[in-house]
Amino acid sequence: MNRITELRKEKNMSQISLALKLNVSQKTISSYENHKNEPGIDLLCKMADMFHVSVDYLIGRTDIRDYASVSDLTWRSDEDINSLYDQLNVENRLIAKGMILGLLISQNSNHFSKTPQNQEKQQ
Prior knowledge:
mainly alpha, 2 domains, 68% helix, single chain, 434 Repressor (Amino-terminal Domain)
């Protein structure tokens, strides 16, 4: 089942009611759900807002539904972050690990560049 169908059914919406909300035809919704056509970016954004998911979730690039969990990580606890990490596929876990290692290296190199000896050299 595609994500549009899944989300529409979760909201107990018919293809016609979704079409009316998006100002398109029922035939258009059917073509999206049956992979005969793909919605444009404007329509994807409208659907993402309507269903409270990210566009990436709609198109299958992520399994994280809650766009707030992606955009509002600063307010999340360590347990929430761990839970989000657990939802990543193997490839994206490797990317996340690489990003964390890169941040640590950057942090450490910045720390060493701010030693009193290096500050004197910069003056």
